[in-house]
């Protein structure tokens, strides 16, 4: 499938691996892919993100992703569901970090040891890459661009889509910007 990725999409995947390595984590996940998408310039995805007002807010998105990672990767919806049955996630995170140190719930950490070699992708990240293929096909595109990765990311439930939506980037808004329906078209 990787041979069907455009240069921009390949750069996103490579960038996600770099984000994973830089954070000392074992596996590449959807948040790493989102951060790599935010790093791109001059691509269809970067055009769409800029059109939706996300330029200049990369640091805020990164902070929101880090906060969710600190909660063990649970979304706000997960936290609300737990609160509905009387579990205070903030209190649990606080107690765990008090006992084991800040970031103790962060999944996928390499334990301070830099791991050499290729980083595997989480099942969610692999599913996202497969979804980007389906997204490209649905738009009649033979190749997978970074815009297809971004669209697939916003179509899936989870922290990255939630964080993007908090910053005004939804699947519907991206569709409008990229393929028409009232917004500017990416070229």
Q: Could you walk me through the main structural features you see in this protein, from its secondary elements to its overall organization?
A:
The protein is mainly α and 187 residues long. The protein has one domain (2-179): Clp, N-terminal domain (Double Clp-N motif, Orthogonal Bundle). It has ten helices and no strands. It has helices spanning 7-22, 30-39, 44-51, 58-70, 76-84, 89-100, 123-138, 146-155, 159-166, 171-179. Helix 2 packs antiparallel against helix 4 and helix 4 (58-70) packs across helix 9 (159-166). The chain is globular. The model is unreliable at 108-116 (pLDDT under 50). Residues 2-187 form the Clp R domain.
β-strand number: 0
Structure classification: mainly alpha
By CATH's scheme, which homologous superfamily applies?
A: Clp, N-terminal domain
Instruction: Estimate percent helicity.
Output: 55-70%
Low-confidence stretches: 108-116
Specify Rg, calculated over alpha carbons.
17 Å
**What is the name of the CATH class?**
Mainly Alpha
Sequence of secondary-structure elements:
HHHHHHHHHH
Strand share of the residues? under 5%
InterPro entries: Clp_N_dom_sf, Clp_R_N
Pfam families: Clp_N
Keywords: Repeat
Organism: Streptomyces nodosus
What order do the helices and strands come in, and which of them pair?
Blueprint: H1 7-22, H2 30-39, H3 44-51, H4 58-70, H5 76-84, H6 89-100, H7 123-138, H8 146-155, H9 159-166, H10 171-179
Helix pairs in contact: 1-2, 1-8, 2-4, 2-8, 3-8, 4-9, 7-8, 8-10
């Amino acid at each position: 499938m990787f041979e069907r990725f455009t240069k921009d999409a390949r750069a996103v995947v490579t960038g996600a691996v770099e984000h994973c390595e830089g954070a000392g984590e074992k596996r590449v996940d959807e948040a790493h892919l989102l951060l790599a998408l935010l790093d791109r310039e001059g691509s269809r995805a970067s055009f769409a993100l800029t059109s939706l007002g996300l330029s200049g807010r990369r640091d805020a998105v990164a902070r929101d992703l880090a906060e969710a990672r600190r909660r063990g990767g649970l979304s706000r919806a997960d936290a609300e569901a737990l609160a509905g049955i009387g579990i205070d996630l903030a209190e649990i995170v606080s107690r765990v970090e008090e006992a084991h140190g800040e970031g103790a719930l962060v999944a996928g950490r390499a334990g301070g040891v830099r791991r050499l070699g290729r980083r595997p992708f989480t099942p969610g990240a692999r599913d996202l890459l497969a979804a980007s293929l389906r997204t490209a096909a649905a738009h009649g595109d033979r190749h997978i661009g970074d815009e297809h990765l971004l669209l697939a990311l916003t179509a899936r439930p989870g922290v990255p889509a939630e964080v993007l939506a908090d910053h005004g980037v939804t699947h519907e808004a991206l569709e409008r910007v990229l393929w028409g329906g009232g917004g500017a078209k990416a070229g």
